[in-house]
Amino acid sequence: MIFSNFDIDELKKLQPKLNTVGNRISGCFYLSASLSKGGNRKITICKDAQKANYLSDCFYLDIIFHKDKSHQNYPVSVYETSSKLLSWKENIPPEYWHVNPDNTLCLGVKEQILKIQSSKTPAHFINTLLSHYFYYMSYVKLKGSEPWKGHYHGLFCILETTSHKEINDKLLRELKLLIDPDIENWNKLLNKTEENKLKSSAICPFCYGKKKLVKNCKPHKKQIQGYNNLVDYFSK
C-alpha cells in the first residue's frame, strides 16, 4: 500500500516520530492510553495520566504493508526493533505472549480487526491497532492479567483446538507441523508435568505463577483436555 500525502499528514499528527517510505513505516511509536470501562477491548487514546489504568511507553517499529492497495490497511509484518518487547517475555504468561516465533507481532485475528476498524483512515487504523496491541502487552506485563479477553495462538491455540477433536493420523501430521515451530514451549510444558496425563489433583501447568489444581482451573479447561488428548502421541 502506498500512502497518500493526506495519509502521511494524518499519521504525523497522531504519531509524529513515525516515517513512511513507500509501503513501509518505521520509527518511534508512542503509547499513551487508558482503559475504557467494561473491559470491552476499548481504550481511550489520550495523554491524561489521571485516567484509570493510564499507560504510556514508546516502541521502535518497522512495519511493512502490501504494495497492492486492495489489501487495505493491515500490515504484512510488524517488528519491534529495539528488543524492548522481547525483553518482557519472561514477565508475561505464555498464553498472553502475542509475538510470533519469527518475532513479528501477532496483532490479532485479521478478519475481526478489519471488520471493526476498516472504516477508519489508514493513519487512524494503524494508530488504533498498535495502541491496542501495546496497551494489552504493557498491561499484562504490569499486572499479570489481561485488560480484555485476547486471542490464543501458537501452542495454546493448538491445545484448545485439539480439546474437541478426535485424534487420527492426518490430524497428528498437521499438528506436528504446527507444534514444531513452538517446540521449545511444548518441551517446557512436558517438563512441567510429572505424569503423562493431567489428573484432577495435578497442578495446572498453564497457570502462570500460581498453583491451581486442574479440577479448579476453568480458564485452561480446553488446554488441559487438548494436552491429555495429545500427550500419548507426543510423549516425553
Rg measurement, Å: 20 Å
- Poorly predicted sequence stretches spanning 5 or more consecutive residues: none
Q: Determine the strand fraction and express it as a percent band.
A: 15-25%
Main beta sheet strand tally, sense and closure: 5 strands, antiparallel
Count of helical regions: 7
What average pLDDT do the residues reach? 84
Overall domain count: 2
Structural class designation? alpha+beta
- Give the N-terminus to C-terminus distance in angstroms: 47 Å
Estimate percent helicity: 25-40%
Q: In sequence order, what are the helices and strands, one letter per element?
A: HEEEEEHHHHHH
Annotation, overall tally of beta strands = 5
What is the overall silhouette? globular
